[in-house]
Amino acid sequence: MTALLALATSLLWGLADFGGGLLTRRVPALTVVVVSQSIAVVVLGAIVIATSAWQEAGPQLWYAVGAGVVGPVAMLSFYKALALGPMGVVSPLGALGVAVPVGVGLLLGERPGLLQFAGIGVAVAGVVLAGGPELRGAPVQRQAILLTLVAAFGFGAVMALIAAASTTITGLFLALFVQRLTNVAVGGAALYASARRGGRVLPEEGGSRVILFSLPALAFVALADVAANGTYSIAAQNGPVAVAAVLANLYPVVTVLAALLLLGERLRAIQAAGAGLALAGTVLLATG
């Protein structure tokens, strides 16, 4: 069950990243974050009311608040790094955030078996290679590397925090609602500050009409991301955190394959090899 839920997480995150990447070609990245998370707040708020999930409020929700603060910072750092450095360097490094939840699992006393340790190594190597790392070319700015590492740590911290924010399904709904509400507050404040400095809020062409027409895609990105957080949280609570974290972090492979199938992008040899290694690591983790 843990493996299946974690793989579902990677599928959902991969598709959400793919959709978000397409949207940021037309809409400012910060606007995409705020609007999509606002949609998630509305949907989750309705679920919380319908299930009376607010009754499970407790100190553990501070973990959800923490995830809500860290998430936008990580996302914006990642987008900024992509603007400064080659995607072939930034994207694979971003996947290294898996070290955070894996480390948490080890600190909690988890000791994966030999096959699972091998699977972790093979899967992480596969994810890095699937991103198509650029091994030659112009040097990468130090700022891009630092921003990528901040983003990676942030992504990993969100995984660890949201897994600790609830112990029941209804509690998970409440935790995700609080996380998204915090996302909107933090992202909205950043968007306001950016607008005050003259930054773009609406697309240069089409303005608010583009956002209106993009609402279905924004809703998909938001709900896929919410569902991924939910499936990961359940996976991490019902099995080894290290296994759940590594399998969930296969999402860059999904994004690469989505670009291959839907946009016709060509898969480089190193990316194909990485996808194969990720699949082999998945098998080892699931059977170890």
UniProtKB/TrEMBL annotation:
Q: Which residues form the EamA domain?
A: 3-130, 144-286
Does the UniProt entry include the keyword Transcription regulation? no
Under Gene3D superfamilies, the record lists:
1.10.3730.20
One cellular component GO annotation, for this chain's record? membrane
The UniProt transmembrane annotation reads 28-49, 61-82, 88-107, 114-132, 144-165, 172-195, 207-228, 240-263
- Provide this UniProt record's keywords sorted from A to Z: Membrane, Transmembrane, Transmembrane helix
Which Pfam families does its entry note? EamA (PF00892)
Highest taxon in the source lineage: Bacteria
Coiled-coil positions: none
Protein family according to the UniProt entry: Belongs to the EamA transporter family.
Protein name from the UniProt record: DMT family transporter
